[in-house]
């Protein structure tokens, strides 16, 4: 079998998605997600100019060799754009290999380790009461795990509180929206949110929270201590993590489980966090961390140190990424949880798929490959619209982390 070509499909059914389609001389094709929220066109150019020409003529079944070729051959290794492009190729080649074998992808990884993949949904509200009502809705839908994000008194906006309750889309068309942030106001507010949620719902439902990179290590340690009595499933992205060592300080002060990694693009971003057991869940995703081939390596390292997977799964990771992730989740021995921000109906129509939700779990289908396709005719109806993620400033105007 030989690769005869590759095409990048950019579509915007409510938000931008970038999809790589790799075609072979035997008529089998594979697709991979290449979406990097707010920087989509950088990956499009990388694929079209620097990757696809090198793929033509290669044997698509040599997945590892292709990965090594694109990683080592780049010379300028790692980084979100490079690793997103490699991820798209890797996912497409795994899709082809599984289709050629007539098997669902998880069978090529090592078979089922579980029936369903436990997922968490996103409840958010302008205040504690509204957030609690949203958590109730997710529990009623059958979710066993819910992330809770609430507006903060005194702040006009905050991460995770959306205009739309079911579909959270942070990116805006036009230039970046500027939000104002106050860690002091946030830290005063969040313990009351989880006090209310545990008081109303008890401890049956797993509760999660995403700080979204906004605290210092000592602030994160304080929040972790304040939340210990509420037994969170995890506290996510408590601080930015270029300095992996800074998590030692948080770890010294709190037993609240920590999750990190959606912005990571290689094992090197999390090697210290994992090997020193500074985190409990690694959030790396198929689309942003070099594809299934590299994600398996991260999970294998994590398994040695009692760290479990918790793949990122926001709306800006396409159904192609989610479909591939679910095959990974169905196989991986040290599975933790899968994020499941639902896609809109328009997006699901562009990306027909075989996975389905039931009783708090997502289930992959048995279709050969990763089970997700792209309807290019429908995709063409939604032209690309440049969009940016917001930026954050402190109340005194200082540039901060969004
Ligand atoms: O945990 C999450 O899902 C968030 O951190 C994401 O919504 C993140 O903000 C977006 O994926 C950024 O594009
Ligand atoms: Mg997050």
UniProtKB/TrEMBL annotation:
Pfam families: MR_MLE_C, MR_MLE_N. Residues 128-257 form the Mandelate racemase/muconate lactonizing enzyme C-terminal domain. It catalyses: D-mannonate = 2-dehydro-3-deoxy-D-gluconate + H2O. Keywords: Carbohydrate metabolism, Lyase, Magnesium, Metal-binding. Its cofactor is Mg(2+). It comes from the Bacteria. One of its GO terms (biological process) is amino acid catabolic process. Its EC number is 4.2.1.8. It is an enzyme of class 4 (lyase). InterPro entries: D-mannonate_dehydratase-like (IPR034589), DgoD-like (IPR034593), Enolase-like_C_sf (IPR036849), Enolase-like_N (IPR029017), Enolase_C-like (IPR029065), MAND (IPR034587), Mandel_Rmase/mucon_lact_enz_CS (IPR018110), Mandelate_racemase_C (IPR013342). Pathway: Carbohydrate metabolism; pentose and glucuronate interconversion. SMART domains: MR_MLE. GO terms for molecular function: magnesium ion binding; mannonate dehydratase activity. SUPFAM superfamilies: Enolase C-terminal domain-like, Enolase N-terminal domain-like. Signal peptide: none annotated. Catalyzes the dehydration of D-mannonate. Has no detectable activity with a panel of 70 other acid sugars (in vitro). This is mannonate dehydratase.
């Amino acid at each position: 079998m030989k690769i005869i070509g590759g095409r990048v499909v950019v579509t915007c059914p409510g938000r931008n998605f970038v999809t790589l389609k790799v075609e072979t001389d035997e008529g089998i094709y594979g697709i991979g997600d290449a979406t990097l929220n707010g920087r989509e066109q950088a990956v499009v150019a990388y694929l079209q100019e620097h990757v696809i020409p090198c793929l033509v003529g290669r044997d698509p079944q040599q997945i590892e060799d292709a990965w090594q070729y694109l990683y080592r051959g780049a010379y300028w290794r790692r980084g979100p754009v490079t690793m997103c492009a490699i991820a798209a190729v890797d996912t497409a080649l795994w899709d082809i290999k599984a289709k050629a074998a007539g098997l669902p992808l998880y069978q090529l990884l090592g078979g089922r380790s579980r029936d369903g993949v436990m997922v968490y949904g996103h409840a958010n509200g302008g205040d504690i009461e509204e957030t609690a009502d949203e958590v109730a809705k997710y529990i009623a839908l059958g979710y066993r795990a819910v992330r809770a994000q609430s507006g903060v008194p005194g702040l006009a906006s905050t991460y995770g509180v959306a205009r739309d309750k079911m579909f959270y889309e942070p990116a805006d068309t036009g230039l970046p929206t500027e939000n104002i942030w106050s860690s002091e106001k946030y830290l005063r507010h969040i313990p009351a949110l989880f006090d209310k949620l545990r008081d109303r719902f008890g401890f049956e439902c797993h509760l999660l929270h995403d700080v979204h990179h906004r605290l210092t290590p000592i602030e994160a340690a304080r929040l972790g201590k304040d939340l210990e009595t509420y037994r969170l499933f995890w506290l996510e992205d408590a601080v930015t993590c270029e300095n992996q060592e800074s998590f030692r300080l948080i770890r010294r002060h709190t037993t609240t489980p920590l999750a990190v990694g959606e912005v990571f693009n290689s094992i090197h971003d999390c090697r210290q966090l994992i090997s020193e057991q500074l985190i409990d869940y690694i959030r790396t995703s198929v689309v942003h961390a070099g594809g299934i081939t590299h994600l398996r390596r991260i999970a294998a390292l994590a398994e040695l140190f009692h760290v479990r997977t918790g793949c990122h799964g926001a709306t800006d990771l396409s159904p192609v990424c989610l479909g591939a992730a679910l095959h990974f989740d169905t196989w991986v021995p040290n599975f933790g949880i899968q994020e499941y921000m639902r896609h809109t109906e328009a997006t699901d129509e562009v990306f027909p798929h075989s996975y389905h939700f039931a009783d708090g779990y997502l289930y992959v289908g048995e279709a050969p490959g990763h089970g997700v396709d792209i309807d290019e005719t429908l995709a063409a109806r939604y032209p690309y619209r440049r969009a940016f993620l917001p930026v954050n400033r402190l109340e005194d105007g200082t540039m901060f982390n969004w």
